[in-house]
Amino acid sequence: MSLSPQKRRKLRLSDSEAKNAALLYDFDHVNKLIHEDARIRLDFVSKVSHSCPYEHFGEACKIPSQTINLDLSVRRSEEELPRRRRRITADPLHDEVYETFHRRMKKEERSRTLTDRGRMYFEMDNLKSQLELLQQHDWNKHLPTLTKINDRSDVDELLKKRQATMHEIEKTLAKFANWEARSSALSAEMKVWENQALARKRVDDDDADDVDETVLDVPLHVLAKERRQQRIARDGMPIRILLRNGHQVRYNPYLTPTVVVEREKSR
C-alpha cells in the first residue's frame, strides 16, 4: 500500500526533526552535581542513607550477586630452544626498499592532517558565531536551534539553559585554544631542533675550517685555543666528580666517561 504525498512529507519531517534533536545540547538528562552545582547530602545517622546510598550510575554501581571463579592454574612445558642461526652479513631488506612507500605515506598523512585541521577550525568558527548569537538581545530566538527546550514560554528554563550552553561553548573554545597553543609551541620546538641538527650536521668536527688557507697563518696554540672555546660553547666543559673514596669520574664530551684513582697530593 503506497503512502500519500502528505504522509510522506510528515515522515520526512519527523526524521529530520529527530536528527536535528540529536545534535542539540540536552541539559535535562545530565548530572546535576556537575552542571548545576547541586549539593550532596550525607547522613550517617539515618538508616535510609545506608540502605539507599547515592548511586549516579544506577545498576552499574551495585555489586554483582554471582561471582566468577577463574582457573588461574599455571601450565608448564619444556621445549628445546632452536639452534642459533648463522649471522647474515648482508641485510636483505635495505632502507631504500621502503623509502618510496614512507614518502608516499608521509605525504598522505600531511594531507589528512591539514584536512582535519581545516575541519576543526571551521567547527570552532561555528561555535564562536553561536556564542555571539547567544550574547545578542534576541538570544531567545537562537537558543532553540542550539539547545533542547521543553517550554519556550518558561523564562527560567531559557535563562538557565542559555547560561549552560554558553558555558559548554566556552569550555570547548578554551580546549581548542589550549590545543592550538601547545601545537604552536611543539612546532616551534621541532623547528629549533631541526635547525640545530642541521647545524650539527654541517659542523661535524673541529677541522671543518681546514679548507680555508688563512688557518695556516694562525699559530697552532691560538688555533687550539679558539677550537677549544668553540667546543666548550657547543658541548660544554669537561667535568670531574670526586667520589670521596679514592676514585673520581672524569667526563669529556668527546671521550667515554672513566673512573680513575685519585693521585695523592704531594706535601
How would you sum up this structure, described in words?
The radius of gyration is 36 Å and the shape is extended. A hairpin with a 4-residue loop joins strand 1 and strand 2. Helix 4 packs antiparallel against helix 6. The protein is 50% helix and 5% strand. The N and C termini lie far apart (116 Å). The chain has a three-stranded antiparallel β-sheet, with no helix packed on it. The protein is built from seven helices and three strands, in the order αααααααβββ. With 267 residues, it is mostly helical.
Please outline what is shown here.
It contains seven helices and three strands.
- Rounded to an integer in angstroms, the radius of gyration calculated over CA atoms is 36 Å
Biggest beta sheet attributes: 3 strands, antiparallel
Point out poorly predicted stretches.
none
User: How is the largest sheet built, in terms of strand order?
Assistant: 1-2-3
Number of strands: 3
Query: What is the count of helical runs?
Result: 7
H/E series: HHHHHHHEEE
Shape: extended
Strand content: under 5%
Helix content: 40-55%
Secondary-structure blueprint:
Elements: H1 5-22, H2 32-35, H3 47-51, H4 96-134, H5 139-142, H6 155-202, H7 220-235, E1 239-242, E2 247-251, E3 258-261
Antiparallel strand pairs: 1-2, 2-3
Give keywords.
three-stranded antiparallel β-sheet; 5% strand; mainly alpha; 267 residues
